[in-house]
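TA notes, week 10

Several of you asked for a full example with nothing omitted. So below is the full record: structure tokens for the whole chain, then the designed sequence directly under it. When grading your own attempts, check the secondary structure regions first.
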């Protein structure tokens, strides 16, 4: 018989035959492998919890008690449990209707609220029984008023200009009416249409093709490409105003800066893909915002935008390009955002819930101090004193706690909680700037709110065809956002400025920015010619 086949079982050395040093090496190998597996399990668990939150949970950074009715992953696809055979108990009751609480500024009990600029059309309802009677036959006792909100379809008006040509009988001289000066040469659009196109697209995010459909429904026949050209030419008139606003922003003592992506044109490196550009919004201390566009997110873009024209405190998130720029630039102090720091711990809460909650509570106490300062209306030195007296001890205690936590031997570098601690520890200097500078906010939430207009646009008009188009979006969005910050109606502002910019002195172009326009021209704006048409 042939010899039996060799066994495929690998040779295993018995532990009793290993030396002491070999046993130590084997133990270290298995301990390291176990730690690696535990780290992988923790990371996969964190990813699974994130996925469950994205699928079923609320996308919020608020720490709230878990909802007992919240579904868990897979529950939606599980077979329903059989219902018990116990009879159902029916409870009947009659629910009363109580009076509804209305705000004080409601016009009537219906709860309608509207401003003085809203047109009101009055309709007097007939009274049965007094038809044909003289006024002396009845007496008005009271008038009951009810308000209802109504709507007209998209309203467009064609203005018909008539220029009379007359001949004086005495002298035979021929006289002609004044010459029409349009906003755009050889254009069919009046200022109100140009302003309406811009406001609808960039404030209410209504794409031009939908505005074109609305015009067709109103009986206006116009090419869609004409709307694109009108928007492009109107924004080109406004570019010098935004340039002047940028100069005003760069003169700020405290400047907030951020970035957000936008798809622009075709990618040069990826076939069939669009290039990803970036808006770099700047928020000045005069409540002015400017959206500058660049094709890159590199540090050199920050250098190009600021271009040695800014000196003061630069407030940003934790992006390393800002830190590198400040280190290489004289006269600029770097402050960073506490909201982004807090976000790191919110994302790490599943890893170390107890330790993370402790830090989040401390950061919450810091925001409570800032809220108290706002409610008291403290400014300048009083605000600085309050921060040093109440916020600084909290900040110092937090930094000491972070130092202690980083000394934990059981904390792995890959742990999200360890990463959050490292994020805060590396930025202690930048996060402390607001304590000594009363004009420096704690976070960048104010500029984050203004950035929201760009993602809202991406959800509607999706992308920009070219870099020129992206820059023009930044121009008009700068003006509309600044109008909102100063309580200026963008429709009134754009209608005025589009007519005024051609006759306004170039040296005084800064007075057409929304902040200064409100002071110089808001009392008597240039209205649409439709306001004077009979």
């Amino acid at each position: 018989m042939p010899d039996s086949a060799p066994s495929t079982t690998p040779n295993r050395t018995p532990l009793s035959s290993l030396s002491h040093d070999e046993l130590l090496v084997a133990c270290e190998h298995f301990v390291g492998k176990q730690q690696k597996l535990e780290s992988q399990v923790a990371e996969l668990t964190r990813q699974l919890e994130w996925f469950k939150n994205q699928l079923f949970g609320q996308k919020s950074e608020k720490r709230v008690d878990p909802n007992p009715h919240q579904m868990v992953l897979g529950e939606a696809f599980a077979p329903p449990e059989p219902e018990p055979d116990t009879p159902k108990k029916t409870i009947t009751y009659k629910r009363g209707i109580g009076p509804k609480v209305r705000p004080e500024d409601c016009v009537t009990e219906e709860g309608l609220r509207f401003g003085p600029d809203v047109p009101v059309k009055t309709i007097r309802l007939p009274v049965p029984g007094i038809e044909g009677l003289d006024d002396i036959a009845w007496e008005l006792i009271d008038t009951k008023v009810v308000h209802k909100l109504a709507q007209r379809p998209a309203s467009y008006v064609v203005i018909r200009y008539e220029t009379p040509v007359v001949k004086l009988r005495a002298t035979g001289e021929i006289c002609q009416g004044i010459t029409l000066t349009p906003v755009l040469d050889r254009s069919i659009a009046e200022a109100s249409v140009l302003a309406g196109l811009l406001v609808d697209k960039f404030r209410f995010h209504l794409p031009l093709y939908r505005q074109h459909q609305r015009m067709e429904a109103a009986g206006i026949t116009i090419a869609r490409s004409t709307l694109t050209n009108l928007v492009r030419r109107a924004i080109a008139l406004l570019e010098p105003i935004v340039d002047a606003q940028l100069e005003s922003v760069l003169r700020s003592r405290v400047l907030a800066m951020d970035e957000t992506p936008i798809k622009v044109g075709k990618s040069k490196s990826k076939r069939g893909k669009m290039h990803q550009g970036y808006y770099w919004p700047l928020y000045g201390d005069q409540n002015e915002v400017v959206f500058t566009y660049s094709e890159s997110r590199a540090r050199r873009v920050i250098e190009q935008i600021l271009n040695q024209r800014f000196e003061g405190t630069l407030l940003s998130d934790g992006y390393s390009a800002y830190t590198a720029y400040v280190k290489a630039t004289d006269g600029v102090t770097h402050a960073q955002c506490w909201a982004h720091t807090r976000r790191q711990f919110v994302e790490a809460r599943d890893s170390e819930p107890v330790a993370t909650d402790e830090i989040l509570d401390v950061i919450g106490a810091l925001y409570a101090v800032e809220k108290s300062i706002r409610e008291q209306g403290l400014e300048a030195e009083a605000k600085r004193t309050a921060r040093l007296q109440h916020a600084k001890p909290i900040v110092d205690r937090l930094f000491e706690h972070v130092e202690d936590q980083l000394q934990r031997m059981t904390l792995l570098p890959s742990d999200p909680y360890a990463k959050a601690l490292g994020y805060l520890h590396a930025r202690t200097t930048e996060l402390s700037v607001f304590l000594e500078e009363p004009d420096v906010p704690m976070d960048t939430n104010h500029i984050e709110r203004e950035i929201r207009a760009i993602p809202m646009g991406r959800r509607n008009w999706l992308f920009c065809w070219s870099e020129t188009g992206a820059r023009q979006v930044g121009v008009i969005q700068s003006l509309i956002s600044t109008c909102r910050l100063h309580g200026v109606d963008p429709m009134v502002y754009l209608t005025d400025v589009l007519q005024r910019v051609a006759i306004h002195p170039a040296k005084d172009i800064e007075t057409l920015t929304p902040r200064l326009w409100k002071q110089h021209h808001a009392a008597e704006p240039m209205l649409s010619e439709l306001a004077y048409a009979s």
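Residues 290 and 478 are 5 Å apart (CA to CA). Use that as a sanity check on your answer.
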